[in-house]
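Consider the following assembly input.
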Amino acid sequence: DVKVTQSSRYLVKRTGEKVFLECVQDMDHENMFWYRQDPGLGLRLIYFSYDVKMKEKGDIPEGYSVSREKKERFSLILESASTNQTSMYLCASSFGRRGDTQYFGPGTRLTVL
Amino acid sequence: GQQVMQIPQYQHVQEGEDFTTYCNSSTTLSNIQWYKQRPGGHPVFLIQLVKSGEVKKQKRLTFQFGEAKKNSSLHITATQTTDVGTYFCAGNGYGQNFVFGPGTRLSVLP
């Protein structure tokens, strides 16, 4: 079974803090993704990565950056958290380049005060 | 850019009734996937459709991909309380990344 884990289920941060969300997958998948999920908006792609040290912007990259130093780990960074970044963050991984099944982690619910 | 829409946004049904959610894309899709997210859970892959007009079944669930590959539907026959959750479609245009629809939240009254 594919396992995707995220460092925290719940996180509370203050405006202006730097926030790190970590995601690890154990299936040697090439691709990893970060989404945010908000009511009525579905899942929106923030960033994705097709290989180590490679990253591409998704639909809503503003205010976020990512890091992929190892194949199994993909980090999402909020350089200076703001209240409008309060959301559920979901990490996913997949084997193929595009169009393959995505396996999701349990999610991190981030609250920025 | 590519947009994926789903209707309805919410659906409340009595246990035993049927349920259908519809997914529409602004562009032609290479393939479409369906995911289910239980309350408090994360999206879990259900199925992928690739061919024009394709129909696939999983027990009480029937998935359809439109002839023009721009729409899809998920139909559940005789809903059960275990069907509760949000159903997302996700489509990718040729050479594009997946775009998720906003989801249809299904509640089933016992």
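Chain B has a mean pLDDT of 94. Ask yourself how this observation constrains the way the partners meet.
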